[in-house]
Amino acid sequence: MTDVFIAWVGFQRRAEVMKNYWGYDLIHLKNKYKDKKFRVIDYFQKTIASANFINKNKPKNIWIQLPPSVFLYYIWIFKGDRKIVADFHNSMLRDQWFKMPFVKHILESVVDVVVVHNDDVKDELVSKGLSGKNIIVLEDKSFKVSRSFSGVEKIYGDYMLFPCSFDIDEPIDVVIRCAEVRSDINFVVTGKHAGKIAQSVIENAPKNVFFTGYVSNEDYNELLCGAFGVLGLTTRENVQLSVANEAVSAGIPMVLSGTATLKKLFGKGAVFVETTNHISMANGILALIECRQKYEAECADLLNERNERWSKQAKNLKSRLEN
């Protein structure tokens, strides 16, 4: 075996899309327990499973997805002569992960390459005390959206797609208020919401808001391709938003939070709005509808630009791994 990418999640599009380019085996380890009080047990079991896989298959290089930080400790002890690549997601910057003991030391001195998703995250890591010597920027890779033509998208009429993890930085309440203003269109909200938002939020939502819950990758692609626009929201700076890369890959124009990072990464094919202002969001959707062909053409241009930029970034990372 050459390389392996270990992700302690059920599925992660970023790692999946890069698999063919880097040639690693991708191992997803799902959460076995719904109740967070069993999280420590879950992490212990995942550490054992990861360690057993590594010891049995002896990969040359190991990619790990962060967070959680827990697996860094195993890497620290049993790295050997392997090269370690840490795919550093924005949530790793939260205190619960970043301030765990020795995390900064491991990232700086044990991990060979810390892969961040944009320049702003690199700057933030440097501001938090890392030297930056082993930090490489590698944005999300675009991909060809494969359609199964299941027809699931036809259920919702004309709709705006809002892929949501129901995290604290994604204001579902603002989307609902926006839907009340824009009652002429439908809003399809994907993502597992059980235990993350109150059932009353779903029950009291306007009739033009549809919560799908978890959908398969095939159905998600159908919903993506069938939407007239994709809504991508975050109240956090420096977040890249994987849904924006998915939209560009599918050629679907976007309404995005107007953060500095998103404006730099997705400066074409998107209308930028104030994340916590439902009127700004409603106006942004109207602007997208009125100039949809313009934004679709910009998406195509942006896709080419992002592909060229990613190729350069990947070559830089490959050179680092080969030296």
What key attributes describe this structure?
alpha/beta, 13 helices, globular, about 325 residues, single chain
Short description:
It contains 13 helices and twelve strands.
Task: Give structural notes.
The protein has helices at 13-22, 39-57, 71-78, 95-98, 103-110, 119-127, 172-181, 199-203, 217-226, 242-250, 260-265, 278-290, 292-322, and strands at 3-7, 25-28, 61-66, 83-88, 113-116, 135-137, 159-163, 186-190, 209-213, 229-232, 254-257, 270-273. By secondary structure, it is α/β, with parallel strands linked by helices. It has a six-stranded parallel beta sheet, sandwiched between helices. A six-stranded parallel beta sheet has the order 9-8-7-10-11-12, sandwiched between helices. β7 (159-163), α7 and β8 form a beta-alpha-beta unit.
The residue fraction in helices comes out at: 40-55%
Q: Order of strands across the biggest sheet?
A: 2-1-3-4-5-6
- The value of Rg in angstroms is 20 Å
How many distinct beta strands?
12
Shape descriptor reads globular
Beta-strand percent range: 15-25%
Biggest beta sheet attributes? 6 strands, parallel
Spatial separation of the terminal alpha carbons: 19 Å
Give me the strand/helix succession: EHEHEHEHHEHEEHEHEHEHEHEHH
Unreliable stretches, pLDDT < 50, 5 or more residues? none
> What is the number of helical segments per DSSP (H or I, 4+ residues)?
13
